[in-house]
Amino acid sequence: MQFVSFPRAVRYFAAFAVFAALALLGPAAAAARRPSTAGHVRELARALDRVQIAAPVSYRGLSIYPVLLEGSDQLPGRWLTLDDAVAAGKLEVREKGASGTVPVVVVRNRTRDEHVFIMAGEVLTGGKQTRTIRHDVVVAPGQTIELKVFCVEARRWEGGKEFSAGKLLVPPSIQQSLRSGVDQREIWDEVARSNQALGAENPTGSLERAMRSPEVEQRLAEVRRRIAPEVPREAAGFIFVVRGRAVGAELFGRADLARKLLPKLIDAYAVDFIILGRDEPSGRRPDADRAAIGFYERICRAGSERAATPGAGAGIRTRASGILGDGVGLGSNLVHYGAQPETRIIYPRSEGGP
After folding, report:
1. 3-state class of 79 per DSSP?
2. In terms of residue numbers, what domain contains 148?
3. By C-alpha distance, which of 3, 17, 59 is closest to 230?
4. How many domains, the chain?
C-alpha cells in the first residue's frame, strides 16, 4: 500500500486507495474508485465522501486509524461536549419529576449560543442511579429535553436529583447491546458480565465503579498514554481494528469534538479488547490496513436512514450489510456517526485477568 505525505510529518493514505497505483493517479481517479454513498442521508454522505484514513497508532493488538476529512471542518458554531458543559455549569442534567424514573432524565442547555453534543454510551453519574445515554443528541442553546437512558447500576435507587458527567463511555460490547434494541434487564446482565470479567464487582453493580477501580484505571491510563499523544490533532474520527478485524468506527463533524472524546473512546475499546482480550505484543498486524479500509467501504455501501432523537438534531440509523450504526446531524452537517459490526467479536480473557 502506498502512503501519501502530508504536512507536519503525519503520513496518510486515502481510505479508498487499496491499490498501490491509485495514489499516483491523482484525486480524480481516487474519487472514481470511492464506494458510492448514495444510500446515506445527506450529511453523512457528505462526510464519508471526504474521508481519508491516516496511518494507525497501535498498542497491544489494538490499532486506531485516525480519520481525516478533506477540506476544513464543516460543522459551524460553538460546541460543547457533555463533560465540558456539565463541568462549566452550562448543562443541567436531573431526574425527571419529584421521584425520578429509570428510563428518562431531563437535560437543559443554559447557554445562549452553544450547542451541546451528547454521545450515545456516555455515562451520567449521581442521581438515583448511574445511567448511560441511549441515542446521540444535540441540545440547542436554551433548550430543555427529555433524554432516554439505560441504568448501568442495577442495585441503587437513592440519592439526589442532579447528575454529573461520568467522563466514561460504555465499552463496545454494551454499546452493541444498546444498538440491538435490548431491554433494561439485558443491559444490567451485560454490565454484570463486564464487571465480573474486570474483577471489579461492587455492591451496587455499577459500571462506573468497575471502570474506576484502581487496577482497571491504572491499565486504562497506560493505554491512553501510549495512544492519545500519537493521534494527529486534525483527526475527525477513528477506525478501531483489533487483531486484524475492524470492531468500530467513529466519525465527527469537527476535529475538536473528536479530540475531546478520544480519551473515553480509547478507554471503552481498551476495556473490551485489551484488558479483557488476549495478551498480544504491540505493533500493527499486516492485515489491519485492509480491515480498516474494508470497514469504511462497508459503511459507505450500507446506507442510512432517519431515526428519532430528541433535541435539535436529526437522528441517523444504519441496520444493513452487517453494520449497526447511529448518529446525529444538524442541518446539512454531520455531528457524529458511530458504527460497529453486527456480529459480536468476543476475545478470551487474558491469563491472570486484569
Report:
1. strand
2. 78-218
3. 59
4. 2
